[in-house]
Structures are given as structure tokens and as C-alpha cells.
Automatic annotation (TrEMBL):
The lineage of its organism: Bacteria, Pseudomonadati, Bacteroidota, Bacteroidia, Marinilabiliales. This is UDP-glucose 6-dehydrogenase. NAD(+) binds at residues 11-16, 36, 41, 92-96, 133-134, 174, 285-288, 355. It is an enzyme of class 1 (oxidoreductase). Its EC number is 1.1.1.22. It comes from Prolixibacter bellariivorans.
Length: 492
């Protein structure tokens, strides 16, 4: 009964797509079907032209090419996939709630709940349900309650199906998803302590054991597994906010934040990773998961714990706003009518994902001051950029820093789509974006930015030629020698 030969995954996004592609690649004996209600997304996963895959990740095209239509299938037939599978991964989005109780903080579990109800409605045989989405601790209980309330089927010859819920959070980072999935630091599986739970854990562990060494497959109680995911993201983001907090002090004192990070990172207790100071962290996970953690702490009446973690997000807001303010201050206290070139829009390099990218917030701050923004990103489509800015106008989170800003001036204006399209221009080449610019801002650490002909860029810019390196990736000496006025994060 432990032998799984048929897997379904609900949700063909940044997690479901790559995760299932790798399982299919490593387990040719298992049929893997990834389903989604988004027809366009499924069509793109099935496109013969692999450059059209909806998720850009280095190496993903080869993984998909290897197993697609062999044992990896993408489909919109959610019910069919549920019916056939012995194990069902739930990998749908769990965004921050934008309405009602917990608005702006709690995770919106409506998509997860819909999946649970659909499985309960459709299933006629036993199923193992795997939480792959990031969920608040104790969600498995809610899923179980829904499953167990499924009405008995009087006409069915077989006994009522049994459902076992596992937690198997995903730790991949975008941009390195395939590498992380092939060679994970660990795989975490949480389950119930009873016999069914233990058997389900073993079934899932057996799948990963096809390529992950046994000692890296950790099994825990289910609540520990659920909470470990939020905790891991909170710790990672906390390191970035810590170094970003120090970057502000470095700028005041003449210390260099990259030197400080290197110096402390060599302490084996601290370690060198996730200490790169930046314009602020982005991505669909860190902010959402910390706010979710904060909400949970408040829910369980732990206000001190909640405030502690909330500060990580506040500091990140501060860092993004500080960067924008530095641009405005340096450009003689106004960017109105000035051309500011953005290098990068994605939230990090090697991805086309822009969710919560720092670039969106910095652009918004500059647009409030009526800047003209010219953007180049190697992977992000033009319409995505407009959609990001338009979305922000409708969904501003009451930010701590924005609240402070109310003391100085008025709260942010809501910009119309027309205003955004008038002021924001997206370019196909970096040189076109930077031509005649008053300033350049580096928002994403794409490798290609280092290799540009910076003399040519300088010659085509207005003088003084300002560069704000929000990622500290440009060659400082080279740019200074050319004549740029370069400002980096955390350098006095
Ligand atoms: P995503 O938005 O890219 O993909 C989710 C998909 O689920 C969408 O395509 C949506 O159409 C589909 N969906 C929603 N409801 C559905 C339903 N009822 N039936 C069928 N399909 C449905 O999201 P993502 O980035 O893949 O994240 C998914 C989960 O994984 C989230 O909980 C996230 O926190 C977690 N996670 C994300 C990352 C990451 O790097 N993006 C890493 C680890 C964990
Ligand atoms: C993160 C977690 O790393 C991953 O384990 C989890 O599964 C999902 O959330 P992701 O958001 O895809 O992954 O990318 P990550 O590499 O963590 O970067 C997040 C943000 O932090 C990016 O904007 C990145 O530029 C920024 N960052 C990262 C820094 O500013 N400095 C650093 O040192 C590291």
C-alpha cells in the first residue's frame, strides 16, 4: 500500500511546476500530473517551445523536456487527476489576505480550502494529501476536518476513503530552483504519529529517496514541520534586515557594509550566506510569511514575539524607502521630469518573478515625485511591470515608514493607470533605457549589468551622471574613473 505510482499536484506555479518536474525526472516509474485552473498557464507548460514555460528557471527547460509526456503531464482536469492519484500535493498560492479579518497580515487560505473540499468531493479511494504550500501552523487540522466531514457515499461499493495529511514544505529559492531541488539541504516531512501517519511519511520519503540521501530526509511531527517553514523564512529575512539596518549606520560612519558582512560571516557561528546588503528583500515569500507569523503570534496572544518579527518587515520597508529618498535627495531634492533608468525589475536575478520586488516600491516613491522611469530587465515582460505598479496603487499596505512619512508630507497619492503609462517606459535594450538619463538605479543583481560598456553609457548620459547601486554589484573603481557619481548601499 506504500507504493505510490500516481501523483497529482494542484497548482502549476513557481513551486508546483519545478518541484513536480524534478520528481518526474528522478522517478520515471511514477506518473506525475500537475493541474491548474489557469488554462493559459497549463498551455504554456505544454508549449513545444520551451522558452515559453511560464516559470523561468535556469535548467528547468531540460528537466521538463526530459519527462514531459513520458511521466509528467500538465492538465486542467483537476478532478480527473485527483481521482487517479494516490498522493496529492497542494501547491496553490497562499497570499496575504487583502480583505476582512487579518487583512494585510494573515495568509489567505481560501485556495487551499477549495482544494481540500474538491478532493473530499471527488475521491473514492484512500489519498495521502501533502501540504506543499506554505501554511500557518495547524492548517493540517483544518484540512483534516474538511476531509472527515465528506458525506458518506451510500451507493459506493467501497468503504469510505481515508485521508492522511502530511506537511512537506518547499525550501527552494527562485533562480536556483532546479539546483535546490536536485540537491536540497534537507527535505522535511511532518506527519501524524499514528500508524497511518507513519505509513504516509514513509511513502513520501521513499519518493525523495530516489535522489536525496537518507540523512537529509527529516521527519517530524506535523506542527513542527508547518512551523519550521515560517521559521526558516523569518530567520533568513531577519539576517537581511539585520545587515540592511547596519548599512544605514555604515553610511553615517564611513564603514563599508560588505567588509563588515565579510568580517562577521567568517565566524562559523554566523556563516557567510544571506548577509548581502541590498535595496531590500522582495519575493513572494519573506514578507508574506513573516506577516503570517506575526498574525499567528498576535492570535495566540504573544504581542512581544509578534513585535519582534514584525520589525524585520518594517526595516525592509525602511530600506526601500531610504533608497528612493537618497535618489531624490541627491538629485537636488526633486526628480520631477527627470529621467531615472532602472536596471532590473525582478526581485532577484535569474527569475522572471516580480512579486514584492523592491523595484516596485522604489518606482512608486519616485513616481510620487513625478519622475520619468525607464526600465530594462532581461526577463520581465513589459505588461508585468505596469500590472505591478497598478496593483500597488490599489493594495498599499499601511507601512510603518509610510506612516512616518505622513508626518513629513502627505500620504502617497494613488496614481492612475494613464499616469503610470505616461511616466514609465519599458525598454528592450539597456542602452536605450539609460540614454540621456539623469541617474541610473540598479534594482536587481543580474550578472549582465556588470559587463556593460560603462564608458558608452556615461557618454550618453546627462551630467553629473549619478548611479545608485542598490545591489553593490558594479565595479566602483571603474565607474569612478570614468566619472560617474556612484552611490552604493552601506558605504560612507
Ligand atoms: P503561484 O501563484 O506561482 O502558483 C499557484 C497556482 O495555483 C496558480 O497557478 C493558481 O492558478 C493555482 N491554483 C489556485 N487555486 C487553485 C485551485 N483551486 N485549483 C487548481 N489550481 C489552483 O504560487 P507559488 O509561488 O508556486 O507558491 C505556491 C505555494 O508555495 C505558496 O504557499 C508559497 O508560499 C509556497 N512557496 C513558494 C516558494 C517560491 O519560491 N515561490 C517557495 C517555497 C514555498
Ligand atoms: C526564499 C527562501 O530562500 C526559500 O528557502 C523559500 O523556499 C522561499 O523564499 P526566494 O524568495 O525565492 O526564496 O529567494 P531568496 O534567495 O531567498 O531571496 C529573497 C530576497 O532577498 C531577494 O529579493 C534577494 O535579492 C534578497 N536577498 C537575499 C538579499 O537582499 N540579500 C541576501 O543576502 C540574500
Amino acid at each position: 500500500p506504500n507504493k505510490v505510482t500516481n501523483i497529482a499536484c494542484i497548482g502549476a506555479g513557481y513551486v508546483g511546476g519545478p518541484t513536480m518536474a524534478v520528481i518526474a525526472q528522478k522517478c520515471p516509474h511514477i506518473k506525475v500530473t500537475v493541474v491548474d485552473i489557469n488554462e493559459k498557464r497549463i498551455a504554456d507548460w505544454n508549449d513545444i517551445d520551451l522558452s515559453k514555460l511560464p516559470v523561468y528557471e535556469p535548467g528547468l527547460d531540460q528537466v521538463v523536456a526530459e519527462s514531459r509526456d513520458r511521466n509528467l503531464f500538465f492538465s486542467t482536469d483537476v478532478e480527473g487527476a485527483i481521482r487517479e492519484a494516490q498522493m496529492i500535493f497542494i501547491s496553490v498560492n497562499t497570499p496575504t489576505k487583502t480583505y476582512g479579518i487579518g487583512k494585510g497580515m494573515a495568509a489567505d487560505l481560501k485556495y487551499v480550502e477549495l482544494c481540500a473540499r474538491q478532493i473530499a468531493d471527488v475521491a473514492t479511494e484512500d489519498k495521502i494529501i501533502v501540504e506543499k504550500s506554505t501554511l500557518p501552523v495547524r492548517t493540517a487540522q483544518a484540512i483534516r476536518t474538511i476531509m472527515n466531514a465528506a458525506p458518506a457515499r451510500p451507493n459506493s461499493p467501497s468503504p469510505a476513503p481515508r485521508f492522511t495529511v502530511l506537511s512537506n514544505p518547499e525550501f527552494l529559492a527562485e533562480g536556483t530552483a532546479v539546483k535546490d531541488l536536485h540537491n536540497p539541504d534537507r527535505v522535511l516531512i511532518g506527519g501524524e504519529e499514528d500508524e497511518d501517519g507513519q505509513r504516509a511519511i514513509e511513502a513520501l520519503a521513499t519518493i525523495y529517496a530516489n535522489w536525496v540521501p537518507g540523512e537529509r530526509i527529516l521527519t517530524t511531527r506535523i506542527w513542527s514541520s508547518e512551523l519550521s517553514k515560517l521559521t526558516a523564512n523569518a530567520f533568513l529575512a531577519q539576517r537581511i534586515s539585520s545587515i540592511n539596518a547596519l548599512s544605514a549606520l555604515c553610511e553615517k560612519t564611513g564603514a563599508d557594509v560588505d567588509e563588515v558582512a565579510h568580517a562577521i560571516g567568517t565566524d562559523s557561528r554566523i556563516g557567510p550566506k544571506f548577509l548581502k546588503s541590498s535595496v531590500g528583500f522582495g519575493g513572494s515569500c519573506f514578507q508574506k510569511d513573516i506577516l503570517n507569523l506575526v498574525y499567528l503570534c498576535r492570535h495566540f496572544n504573544l504581542p512581544e514575539v509578534a513585535d519582534y518579527w514584525e520589525q524585520v518587515v518594517k526595516l525592509n520597508d525602511y530600506q526601500k524607502q531610504r533608497f528612493a529618498k537618497q535618489i531624490i535627495d541627491t538629485l537636488f531634492n526633486t526628480v520631477s521630469g527627470k529621467k531615472i533608468a532602472f536596471l532590473g525589475w525582478a526581485f532577484k536575478k535569474d527569475t522572471n518573478d516580480t512579486r514584492e520586488s523592491a523595484a516596485i516600491y522604489v518606482a512608486d516613491e519616485l513616481l510620487q515625485d513625478r519622475a520619468e522611469i525607464h526600465i530594462y530587465d532581461p526577463k520581465v515582460p513589459t505588461e508585468r511591470i505596469y500590472a505591478d505598479l497598478e496593483y500597488l496603487q490599489q493594495h498599499r499596505r499601511p507601512q510603518a515608514v509610510i506612516a512616518d512619512r505622513a508626518k513629513q508630507s502627505d500620504p502617497p497619492e494613488t496614481l492612475s493607470s494613464e499616469a503610470i503609462r505616461r511616466l514609465v517606459h519599458v525598454h528592450k535594450t539597456p542602452y536605450a533605457a539609460m540614454e540621456q538619463a539623469h541617474a541610473i538605479a540598479v534594482l536587481t543583481e543580474w550578472d549582465e549589468f556588470r559587463t556593460y560598456d560603462w564608458q558608452k553609457i556615461y557618454d550618453a548620459m546627462r551630467k553629473p551622471a549619478f548611479v545608485f547601486d542598490g545591489r553593490n554589484i558594479l565595479n566602483r573603481e571603474e565607474l569612478n574613473n570614468i566619472g560617474f557619481e556612484l552611490q552604493s548601499i552601506g558605504r560612507g
